[in-house]
Amino acid sequence: MATGMLHSHYLFVVLFTLIYLVKTILLLSDKDELLEKFKKKTKVVEMIVSFGFLATGVFLLTQLPVVTTIMIVKIVLVVLSIPLAVIGYKKKNKVLATLSFFLIVVSFGLAHKAKDAKAGEKTVALSGKEIFEEKCTLCHGGDGKLALSGAKDLSVTQLPHAGIVEIITNGKNTMAAYKEALTAEQIEAVASYIETDLKGK
Ligand code: HEC
After folding, report:
1. Helix, strand, or coil (residue 156)
2. Mean of the pLDDT values across residues 82-91?
3. Coil, strand or helix: which one is 199?
4. For the chain, what is the domain count?
5. Could you tell me if the CB of 167 is within 6 A of ligand 1?
6. Are residues 73 and 142 in the same domain?
7. 140 alpha carbon to ligand 1 midpoint, in Å?
8. Are residues 103 and 12 in the same domain?
9. For residue 173, what are the domain limits?
10. 119 CA distance to ligand 1 middle (Å)
11. Dihedral of CA 30/34/36/39: which sign?
């Protein structure tokens, strides 16, 4: 389901970018009449594509285990590009139109970067690592050794798997419980990440 959605999202993004590429080229080369014609012809298509692009994007966002910084940057860029594009094409302002096109392309590039980074790793190992980096490094540090505000050095933990899962689930002293913030699978994934990537390193 999510993969099919991802593919439709890419398709919408590509179509959206193509429409904007043509519009930007026409605007930059002062082909005003052609631009108007193109805008008229693609109006409905553009509405469908933009809606599909946003709807699949929002759906995918709700499916993410963790929202990474790169995702936030991407969303901000896309959101910024919309008013820029609207004003740019209405006022035939080349700078604004080019800028908005540039923002869309950059955010598209970012999406691919994030995907490439993921492709090499196993999903479980990756989400465990991502969750750890997002939620745990503040006290435990990237290598698990930081031990801030009384935290334990995770690289020397003696706890068995079940004990690690228990502490992440229910918390202990200054460490908060994560049973609300993370699913059981995510807790398993972070616990495995600690055991395979931090412990004994
Ligand atoms: C607010 C700081 C803080 C954050 C954030 C935090 N921890 Fe902790 N963690 C602690 C403290 C403090 C302890 C020691 C608790 C005790 O034994 O008194 C601890 C202990 C642990 C232990 C037990 C280690 C041992 O050998 O006893 C594990 C495992 C652990 N944390 C994992 C995590 C994971 C995974 C996350 C992210 C989901 C996380 N922690 C986030 C503060 C934090």
Report:
1. helix
2. 83
3. coil
4. 2
5. yes
6. no
7. 7
8. yes
9. 123-198
10. 29
11. negative
* Strand runs labelled E in the chain: none
Predicted confidence (pLDDT) per residue in 38-61, tens digit: 888 888 998 899 889 888 888 887
Determine if ligand 1 sits within 6 Å of the CB of residue 170: no
CA of 121 to the centre of ligand 1 (A): 25
Judge if 129 and 102 occupy the same domain. Answer: no
Closest Cα partner for 129 from 54, 63, 189, 67?
189
Contacts of 139 (CB under 8 A, 6+ apart): 146, 147, 148, 149, 151, 174, 175
Answer whether 49 contacts ligand 1 (Cβ < 6 A).
no
Q: How far does the centroid of ligand 1 lie from the alpha carbon of residue 16, in Å? A: 45
For atom 39 of ligand 1, the residue with the nearest CA is 136
Query: Do residues 67 and 94 both lie within one domain?
Result: yes
Ligand 1 contact, 172 CB (< 6 A): yes
Contact 150, 200 (CB under 8 A): no
Task: Using the predicted structure, report yes or no on whether residue 121 has a pLDDT greater than 70.
Answer: no
Same domain, 24 and 88: yes
pLDDT above 60 (res 201): yes
C-beta 68 within 6 A of ligand 1: no
Buried b or exposed e, range 17-37, using 16+ CB within 10 angstroms? bebbeebbebbeeeeeeebee
| Alpha carbon nearest to ligand 1 atom 11, residue | 151
Using CA atoms, how far apart are residues 76 and 153, in angstroms rounded to an integer?
Answer: 36
Question: 103: Cβ below 6 Å to ligand 1?
Answer: no
